[in-house]
Design brief:
The protein has 246 residues and is α/β, with parallel strands linked by helices. The protein folds into 2 domains: 139 residues, no CATH class; 80 residues, no CATH class. The protein contains 12 helices and 7 strands. The strands form 2 sheets. A 5-stranded parallel beta sheet has the order 2-3-1-4-7, with helices on both faces. The chain has a two-stranded antiparallel ribbon with strand order 5-6. Strand 5 and strand 6 form a beta hairpin. The model has no long low-confidence stretch (mean pLDDT 91).
Length: 246
């Protein structure tokens, strides 16, 4: 994403949520295509918290978040300070099952002409597209590392810096009492979030560009059994499951 696009989105989300709560101060981090758009859409739909982001960087620290409040979101591979030292009330890493993540990223690449890998991969055989997503690829200046490496990098940094691991699928269900998913939903929607959650989720789908991309995809992209058992994907699954039970 270009610097200009990032600035535009920061201004857009700041204006759309002007006057909302700037505290508690929360950073929701994620590997791209792991559900950030759900967080953005839910935050807007609940109508409670200010949005700030995206923050997209290989590394970041407290000075990079100065002046930001409410729900800050983005994709940061490595935070150089703990959530507490950065002045956050909560740090969250949003994760998604690697099979669902791979399919989501593949659909996005194929349906979005602005993605840097679109030209190289759109229209290819489904397994060719998924193999690139799972094993990594280079397309001009754009590069994507193997999926296992992506999961290790983000999850290890989250555990080191005191970020809670929140699972995408658990957010779509009734989260367990005291879970990280429930903690996040209470920030987004308040203590009575449950009474408004289904309506907020429905509104989030209406405004989600990612959801529209998935609905407008030219074909169904699903993982074959061979893709599901790909060694790199299986290793990522092991890392993902361990993080949820950490």
């Amino acid at each position: 994403m270009s610097t200009l696009a990032i600035r535009y989105l920061n201004l857009k989300y700041g204006f759309q949520t002007l006057g909302r709560n700037r505290t508690p101060r929360v950073f929701v981090n994620s590997i791209p295509k792991s559900g950030t758009n759900l967080i953005v859409s839910l935050t807007k739909a609940f109508g409670r918290m200010k949005l700030s982001g995206p923050v997209i960087a290989q590394t970041a620290n407290g000075s990079d978040l100065a002046g930001r409040g409410g729900v800050i979101f983005g994709h940061v591979e490595c935070f150089e300070q703990s959530a507490t030292d950065m002045g956050l009330d909560m740090g969250v890493l949003l994760v998604r099952a690697p099979t669902a993540y791979a399919a989501s990223l593949a659909r996005y690449i194929e349906s979005n002409p602005r993605h840097p890998a679109h030209k190289a991969l759109a229209g290819q055989e489904v397994d060719t597209l998924l193999t690139a997503v799972i094993e990594g690829m280079h397309a001009g200046p754009f590069s994507l590392e193997p999926v296992h490496d992506r999961y290790v990098r983000y999850i290890e940094n989250a555990q080191k810096t005191g970020f809670k691991i929140v699972d995408f699928d658990r957010l779509l269900k009734d989260p367990a009492e005291g879970s990280a998913e429930q903690d996040l939903l209470r920030v987004l929607g308040g203590d009575d979030y449950a009474s408004n959650y289904e309506a907020a989720l429905a509104r989030s789908r209406e405004t989600s560009t990612t959801y529209r991309h998935s609905q407008n995809a030219p074909r169904r992209i699903a993982l074959s059994e061979d893709m599901r058992t790909h060694s790199n994907l299986q290793k990522a699954q092991t890392v993902y499951e361990a993080a949820l039970h950490h």
